[in-house]
From TrEMBL:
<feature type="domain" description="AprE-like long alpha-helical hairpin">
    <location>
        <begin position="113"/>
        <end position="302"/>
    </location>
</feature>
<keyword id="KW-1133">Transmembrane helix</keyword>
<keyword id="KW-1003">Cell membrane</keyword>
<keyword id="KW-0813">Transport</keyword>
<keyword id="KW-0812">Transmembrane</keyword>
<dbReference type="InterPro" id="IPR058982">
    <property type="entry name" value="Beta-barrel_AprE"/>
</dbReference>
<dbReference type="InterPro" id="IPR010129">
    <property type="entry name" value="T1SS_HlyD"/>
</dbReference>
<dbReference type="InterPro" id="IPR006144">
    <property type="entry name" value="Secretion_HlyD_CS"/>
</dbReference>
<keyword id="KW-0472">Membrane</keyword>
<comment type="similarity">
    <text>Belongs to the membrane fusion protein (MFP) (TC 8.A.1) family.</text>
</comment>
<dbReference type="InterPro" id="IPR058781">
    <property type="entry name" value="HH_AprE-like"/>
</dbReference>
<dbReference type="GO" id="GO:0009306">
    <property type="term" value="P:protein secretion"/>
</dbReference>
<protein>
    <recommendedName>
        <fullName>Membrane fusion protein (MFP) family protein</fullName>
    </recommendedName>
</protein>
<feature type="transmembrane region" description="Helical">
    <location>
        <begin position="33"/>
        <end position="57"/>
    </location>
</feature>
<dbReference type="GO" id="GO:0005886">
    <property type="term" value="C:plasma membrane"/>
</dbReference>
<feature type="domain" description="AprE-like beta-barrel">
    <location>
        <begin position="345"/>
        <end position="433"/>
    </location>
</feature>
<dbReference type="Pfam" id="PF25994">
    <property type="entry name" value="HH_AprE"/>
</dbReference>
């Protein structure tokens, strides 16, 4: 088909032959656009179809991004002192390198040393008293002091005086106890002699009674024959009864004296028992005091050993909190920090609670350091080492987060060996959580909306 196009006079004809004709001319254009349009639609549909297929099938990596800080694997070592004290000397300065065991700060030992000496004297006294009481309890003839005291007493006059004092107390207490028992034993001895005399009297009375019985028997025979008066017989009978009464009285006195002896022996036993009971009571009290004083002495000596505050690890001294000699360190207060130099560097990062889902120990991570030129700094790979079990709150921003720790792998260590990475440097961590498609990412908000739809 062809179409007619009118041209105005003065215009050049489109058709070269049109110049030969006057008035109107005809121009032929191709009008079959179907193939071009079809090809265009095929390109559009193929592009969108390919894009849709790619978004539905091609996996894209998902990750959690967190900001963090470079730290040493075992953290900074805070230097503290349990009891505190007065600063005698400061041996280091900020930024100084120290080795493990180096003296950092020296405290004034005067007060602690005086306390240790006092406790040492208390322990010595308690040991001497214990030895004396053990000798009293075991009825010893002398005190058996510990060998350590005997050896030290040769060069320590105060200890020798303490031991001599306990010997005097031992002798005085033994003399007092022996004096009490000696009086009672003398009384018993006198009573025994008295009993012996009375037993002789009893025997004499028995012999007298036997003789009178014989005489009385003969006198009765004479009286029966009328050769002796009856009153004579009665007189002899009264004498026999009198002797029997005297013998009974003597026997009664013997029993009384023997009872007195028993009482005296009981008093001796009671005196010894009372003495031993008091010794046992005093011994328990002394041993308890000895234990307490010994424990306090050990603690004080340990405190003396901590007058030199030493570095817990090799590293650099940072963040010193003390600068004044004769200043005071509070008990448990932080004195300074030591940053270990040979320890492994890691990154502590804060992950938002919304990104914590799916994070597991062992996941791969990428670490970037904003302080370095990103174009020249190689990609640093690491591995997720720990994930906090519960969310934490940042005290500065009051924002919740989960703490994660990322270790740099060995290959990346070699590539960043020339970089001056130091603790405290900021870092950005990208933790690879897995893969998902673009379509899944785009449809996720619609799914979430659908889940919440039609619900009050």
């Amino acid at each position: 088909m062809t179409s007619l196009i009118e041209t105005s006079p003065g215009l050049l004809p489109i058709n070269p032959d049109a110049g030969k004709k006057a008035g109107k001319s005809k121009v032929n254009f191709p009008t079959n656009y179907g193939g071009t349009i079809l090809a265009g639609w095929i390109v559009i549909i193929t592009s969108f179809g390919g894009l849709a297929a790619w978004s539905a099938l091609a996996p894209l990596s998902t990750a959690a991004i967190a900001s963090g800080t470079v730290v040493v694997d075992s953290y900074r070592k805070s230097v503290q002192h349990l009891q505190g004290g007065i600063i005698q000397d400061i041996m280091v300065r900020e930024g100084q390198h120290v080795e493990a065991g180096d003296v950092l700060v020296r405290l004034d030992p005067t007060q602690t040393r005086s306390l240790a000496q006092m406790l040492r004297a208390q322990v010595d006294l308690a040991l001497a008293e214990e030895a004396r009481m053990l000798a009293e309890r075991d009825d010893g003839k002398e005190i058996k002091f510990p060998a350590t005291l005997l050896e030290r007493a040769k060069t320590e006059p105060e200890l020798a005086d303490t031991m001599a004092g306990q010997r005097r107390i031992f002798e005085a207490r033994q003399a007092s106890l022996n004096g009490q028992t000696s009086i009672l034993r003398n009384r018993i001895a006198q009573s025994v002699e008295q009993i012996s005399g009375m037993e002789i009297q009893v025997k004499a009375k028995i012999r007298q009674s036997a003789l009178l019985d014989k005489e009385l028997k003969g006198l009765r025979d004479l009286a029966d024959r009328g050769n002796a008066p009856a009153n004579k017989v009665l007189q002899y009978e009264r004498e026999v009864e009198s002797l029997m009464a005297e013998r009974g009285e003597i026997l009664s006195n013997i029993a009384s004296v023997r009872q007195s002896i028993g009482e005296s022996e009981l008093q001796i036993t009671q005196a010894r028992k009372t003495f031993l009971e008091q010794v046992e009571t005093d011994l328990r009290t002394t041993q308890a005091r000895l234990f307490e004083s010994t424990e306090r002495l050990h603690a004080t000596r340990a405190e003396l050993g901590r007058m030199d505050i030493r570095a817990p690890d090799s590293g650099i001294v940072v963040d010193m909190a003390i600068h004044t000699v004769d200043g005071v360190i509070t008990p448990g207060g932080r004195i300074m920090d030591i940053v270990p130099q040979n320890d492994r560097l890691v990154v502590d990062a804060q992950v938002r609670p919304a990104d914590i889902d799916g994070l597991q120990v062992g996941m791969e991570a990428e670490i970037r350091f904003p302080a370095f030129n990103q174009r020249t700094t190689p990609m640093i790979h690491g591995q997720l080492k720990t994930v906090s079990a519960d969310r934490l709150i940042d005290p500065k921003t009051n924002q919740p987060y989960f703490n994660v720790r990322v270790l740099v792998d060995d290959k990346s260590k070699e590539s960043i060996a020339g970089l001056n990475i130091i603790p405290g440097m900021p870092a950005e961590v990208v933790i690879k959580k897995g893969e998902r498609t673009l379509l899944s990412y785009l449809l996720q908000p619609m799914r979430d909306t659908a889940v919440r739809a039609m619900r009050e």
